[in-house]
Amino acid sequence: MLTAVAITMVFGAITVILWSGSQAVLEGSMTGGQLAQFLMYSLFVGSSAAGLSEVWGEVQRGAGAMERLSELLEAVPAIREPENPVELPGGRASGRISFKKVSFSYPSRPDELALKDFSLEIEPGETVAIVGPSGAGKSTSFQMLERFYDPKSGSIEIDGVDIATLSPTTLRQQIGLVPQETVLFGDSARENIRYGDQSASNYLVEQAAFKAAADEFISDLPDGYDTFLGERGTRLSGGQRQRVAIARAILKDPPILLLDEATSSLDAESERLVQLALEQLMQDRTTLVIAHRLATVKKVDRIVVMDAGRIVAVGNHEELIKSSELYANLAKLQFGEQ
Q1: Whole-prediction pTM
Q2: CATH class held by domain 89-335
Q3: Chunked in runs of 10, what are the mean pLDDT values of the chain (338 residues)?
Q4: Are 257 and 209 in contact (CB under 8 A)?
Q5: How is the chain split into domains, by residue range?
């Protein structure tokens, strides 16, 4: 609107000047050359004024965007680093995890508890699966352990140290995550894997890919490890993206591993390859597994059954079939087991 108004006014003024100047030439008070000279100056001024109006519009749009950016830059995060963060004994966690009567509700649903008095002890090197219906609080427990949120009550400890007293960077360096939807960047396969440890050499990157059963398909890409994977890894299949995520976690070498539905959206062949890579990754680590497919959790040390934010049963597959009605129903739906 500003540009349209400016152009209309400027060229309307030039039209008036041309009409007045023509009258002056006819009357003999101005020569034709003077009129042409004045008209040329007017065109220069008019086009410049119209250009300035466009620039002013761009400035206004930029100011609006900058206002939003300033709000983001000045925002104070709810999760802050403690003034005097505690260090983990030895600098690396052994993998002991303790949830102590943790209760939590999301800010968007403050009256609905996602976790209710959630207590769980996990020993170093133990593999624990968390199962239950949708909305039971499985993913919430992962988010709490990574300290994306702080609990309303209770505490979470790693090796006896409350994670709220740790630097978030230190805490997250101890945790590796293989999510259901892998986030890949618009970069090469090598740099996507190196995201797990940005100081790693090319040799270590390739070794991680080999352990994750990703070396074969990466080597077959047009430029091998230097192949551009496209935005969000569009040039790879779902199973290939998952194996890149596993290679990242292997390269990071964390003492605690979180697997969030890592094989739920894969076909049978991709799931087999990813499962083999996960078994390699899970060795000598404390591992928490979220899975709807109960076939993937039969070999774990313990299975934790959750419902409505609470733990309702703990045991292995055979025990839970007999003792937990909820787990037995889940197993019946998937395996036909009674």
Answers
A1: 0.70
A2: alpha beta
A3: 76 81 82 81 76 80 88 84 83 86 87 87 88 84 89 89 88 85 84 86 88 82 83 78 85 86 64 72 83 70 86 83 80 60
A4: no
A5: 2-74, 89-335
